[in-house]
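Reader question, answered in our methods column.
A reader sent in the components of a multi-part assembly and asked whether the whole thing could be modeled at once rather than chain by chain. We filled in our standard form and ran it. Here is what they sent:
COMPLEX SIZE: two components
ENTRIES:
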Amino acid sequence: MVPWVWPDRHRSDMFAGPMRLRDQPPGYLLLEDGRIFEGRMAGAEGVALGEVVFNTSLTGYQEILTDPSYAGQIVAMTAPHIGNYGVAPADAESARPHVAGFVVRELSLVHSSWRSQESLSSYLRRNGVVTLSEVDTRALTRHIRSAGAMRAALASAAVSEDSLRQRLAAHPRMEGLDLTGMVSTSQPYEVPPAGEERFLVVAYDFGMKSRSAELLAERCCRVRAVPRDTRFEEILDSGADGLFVSNGPGDPEAVVHALETIRRAAEDGIPVLGICLGHQLVARAFGGTTFKMRYGHRAGNHPVRRLSDGAVEITAQNHGFAVRGGEGVGIDAAPGLRLTHVNLNDGTVEGLEHRELPVFSVQYHPEAAPGPHDSIYLFDRFIEAMAQV
Amino acid sequence: MPRRDDLGSILLIGSGPIVIGQGCEFDYSGTQAVRALREEGYRVVLVNSNPATIMTDPDLAHRTYIEPITAEWVERIIERERPQALLPTMGGQTALNVALDLHDRGVLERWNVELIGADARAIRMAEDREEFAAAMVRIGLNVPTGGFARTVDQALGIVDDIGYPAIIRPSFTLGGSGGGIAYNLEEFRVAVQRGLDLSPVNEVLIDRSVIGWKEYELEMMRDGADNVLVVCSIENVDPMGVHTGDSITVAPAQTLSDVEYQAMRDAAIAIIREIGVEAGGCNIQFAVNPGDGEMLVVEMNPRVSRSSALASKATGFPIARIGAKLAVGYRLDELPNDITRVTPASFEPVLDYVVVKFPRFAFEKFPAADPTLGVQMKAVGEAMAIGRTFKQAWQKGLRGLEIDRGAWVTGDRPQDDGLADDTEETLRAALRRPTADRPFQVKRALEKGCAPAEIHQVTGIDPWFLAQFAELVDAERWFAGLGVQGQGQVEDAAGAGLTGVDAAALRHMKRLGFSDQQLARLRSVTEREVRDLRWELGVRPTYQMVDTCAGEFPAATPYLYSAYESESEAPPSDARKVLILGSGPNRIGQGIEFDYCCVQAALALRADGFETIMVNSNPETVSTDFDISDRLYFEPLTLEDVIEIVAREQPEGVIVQLGGQTPLKLAKPLADLGVPILGTSVDAIDRAEDRDRFVDLCRSIGAAVPPNGVATSVEQAVRVAAKVGYPALVRPSYVLGGRAMEIVYDEASLRSYFERAVRASPDHPVLIDRFLEDAFEADVDAVCDGENVVIAGVMQHIEDAGVHSGDSACVLPPYLLKDEEVDEMRRLTRRFATELGVIGLINVQFAIRDGLVYVLEVNPRASRTVPFVAKATGIAFARAAARVMVGRSLADVGLDLETDPSPVGVAMKEAVFPFEKFNVDVILGPEMRSTGEVMGLDESFGMAYAKAQVSAGASLPTSGTVVVTVNNNDKATVTPIVRRLHELGFTIRATGGTARYLRARGVPAEPIFKVGEGRPDIADGIISGEVQLLINTPLGKKSQYDDYTMRRTAIAYRIPYCTTMSAASAAADAVIALTHRRREVRSLQERFGSDTARAGESGTASTSFPS
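And here is the structure of the entire assembly that came back:
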């Protein structure tokens, strides 16, 4: 009656690993303000330190784990079951996980998907991600919502609270932190176009998600990812048709790279597309300012209005800092810029463009991965902008 | 795009009676839609033939028509009301079909009515499978290949290409009615022929079989500016092959990666745009090959649906409400998210909990029906549960189902789980065939140590779900063995009590969703012992909010579920509060009527300043709409779940008498725990239910009861029956809907019955009453404040005694009873109410024979007829009852103590049966089998009956041929009825004996063969369209086979049939009315002269329904 047979590998490792939740060793998450959340250790051994944030995406844990923008952060997932469909190499956004730690309500003990190559628990252990399961992530989320994102430490119950508190106190805050050095490529690398090359896009890699490069490559761009400190001249010399400024972790105020390049490239008529950290840097390059949000946006369901026609895009979000808006469609302290997209939940700046130069950027993630594809058109707009030059 | 100002008046079509595939979810969506449109200042005209609905409450719409939902009758409403627009997407398939029919007949054009929400082109493209398949191909999506056939030969050509198993679906039928799966040529031919016959356009779709594929649904919304979003994803635990309505489903989807989910979302967005749903919701179903991820589009419904109701309850996103607003021009981003109130509706809800929905079946009512689940829906209701994890929700959902199992507990005997014996072969074979027992068979298999992988292979259930189940079974073993010598076997726990069970162990099990009852069973102790220990150790549930956003934003609406987390939300207030217990999943005998009563109570008490708290587990209902009560607990209605809420909320009292048997069963255990029960006392309920005390009660007030007795064993039953006399009516005590109620004619049938009845209800004795043949039956509903009584209505049954009151047509006022008989029933009802000290509602059932009034039953609680009576008289008795329960007097709540209310005109109730879905006989009996009801309202008896019949799906003819075949007892009675039909111009045909009898009395009747006597027979006549009405009474148990075929054929060809003499007589009256009287429609507001609600004014609805 069932016309297909489940592959053997699933049969054999379906119940491999610690079958019983109650057998997992206890652990806890200690917050900077003293609040403790108990759970059970489910990933790698060790202590994790970072800023604790929550993400409300229902799917896409692997993309989130491997998104370099999460460097320095302990990510709590609000969806209760994580790991259900295992891990598929194709879904990784970079070579390895970047989160500082991982917190879930329940880590799946099995994985079920034809795409899966490995269980998430095995993946987390193999990649050294300290993980706490069986946590009341809703209480944690509500706490972060009211108290704000803050530093936290995650460890096994064998680690005493005192020692953990000391380590936590010594850990730096997110404000003022340039974390792009942890995740930016050290050497330039290229992603070949899928088809005949139309454009060369130089991408500032501050921790670029691979999906962004893929979407450009699919649009016949050769993507040359360069280290964060690459100088403008080098980019100009490479014959770039467009400049892509990637997402990345940390406080944009602390990132000193690329600002001049963004400005000069734009002035030279080279179209610029910025995403997330890239968007914040674009704003800053033209005088804009950024601020740390109370608990940021990390989700796959935020409504964003496109001001050009009023349409609503459902967007993927991952940011703890934002560009300060101004009067009307203005951007604070950046008279050259204009607001193009706004978050309908809280009115924050989600997109902007230069009033004269071929520069535009968005705070959210049009490349999705994970998240809805409503905004992929922005990559087409970037292509059009390069075509018009 | 704000609200459209060019529309003033909008017509909304409801879905009619509750049938399998179209339940009370459309009352929920319709009610939301009416409220949403009213709120915007539109004048709302509503038509629905179902009186049990909340939407037909005369306070809700401006004009409420309880009239047949057919193009002919709806056109009359359009002609009178002249609406500018028709919203067809809120009333299920019924409303869509009628809207299309109105469009095709040019009615909408003639009266200049615009279809809003979805236009005729979009509806047709979504509904017509050929057009739909073509549309999918245009946007590059795949459908299960196959094709359409209008003949068996065409179908055979298609199946040659695609092979078996093949799926056969008739076009344009309700709930997949008439569909089937064929595994071989023979089955295929039968299924195709049946499908062609059932399809109104004589067309079937032959699909590629995707049995065993993963099944998903996405609930979508789109506004007029082309903004599209997914409200909810739903994954079926039962893979493709089982109708979604019969499947256990989970929200959100659990086993799709983001890559796969987004591909599905992209496809869904492309589909809603291509089909062109302009403004509103739709649901799209997908099949995914678990081996390679291939995704096929199965179907799309351009309207709200059962799944959208589920999605609304699962997410807190009110799809119908938002859909109605989109239909009148709003954009999603102009509307607020009603839960957070600060963020807009243009977002996609995210869940930090898991929702599981279980179907509720009624196979016990239809022992002859095939219990295999397939593409044709068979469930009659559903229970939903919310848990922090799938495991928790799974267990809560199963205990919310109320199937006498406690929860996910296997039966003591293999037979209890639908297995012939306890062998692995039997189990494996059973698992291959999806039935209502399968969840329990899966558990048995796991308990036996079957590998989940193996269970996956035979069931197709995703390994992830099976792993969750395995964890639960593993935990049970662990818990049973805690502190016990010999570890690990359930039996070992005997005698150990709760030794070794500590707070951590209890918390661990509670987090996995186990109930106290389950834990008690595992340790061979009582539920109370577990509860006492649990309370002592402080292991108590926490309550979390359904907030649409997984905690990202604060929520303003207290819509709650229980869990065992670290903290509770939405702390209780110190307001005066009343807890109302709902009725749980719909089933035969307990349905929407009770939800109506609960909602009325919530609205009334809320208006009076109480904080109202609703507890219910049925996602289809209005009562579980999060803004009907001040607080909603979406929880199973078990003692444990309810007592925890009571302990948290500390209400002034709990209302148990409005939700049917479900809350009533909890009354005593709650009272024993010190919970104040509002209204009629628990002791009074017991006096009416306990047979001995009931007989004493009747004696004390001088009411006659049929001779009766009680038996707890077969031998005792035989002795009692001999004393009482045959025929006897036998039934277990404490049942609703005539469960296991039968008429036995002799000792042999009594003996055979008794064993089954005892099995049906082991804890209660069997009641034996003398059955009063040829008596009239009547129902009286009344409300009492402990001193005074107002009789709401006296309803006479159309069918003779012996047909369950829920299955019998009934009429208000009585049409064949003498005044003194009616007065006697009123008098007795008053006596019962005051004697019992009823505070709230009471229903008394009577039988009248030879001028004597007998009392059959006294029910000091809401009855099934409360909403019917309210619609017939215009008085909201349920609201009055709720108010007297909190201490007000009848006079104080505005009821006239001097004169009992009388109905306006004639109100007829007719029952609707699921005989199309179940291949069983249609003869009515004491066991209730109807799923829903309709109401016919008119000035004349005949027209009221005619309207009720049309609404119930049986259009009575005004010309043609009547076939008569009745048993000897009925020949004299049927003669004048047939004579009237002959005078009206009908051709009369009758079988041998009946024809001779009629001819001998001057009624020319041509002979026709019974089935089996020769050809062409009656069935052939029905098939070739030569029969327009069938009058048939059964010949008795033994010789029914031919009758059975004939009646089944009548059902299949939708030929109206009468199986009792009183129904035949009423049908004759109806035919006369249809022939001679004008067919008119009138709104309730006009009938009651309560024309208070007008467009643009804040009518009564805004005061009684929260906005």
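What stands out: Chain B touches chain A through 73 residues (CB under 8 Å). Residues 334 and 687 of chain B are 56 Å apart (CA to CA).
Send us your own complexes using the same form.
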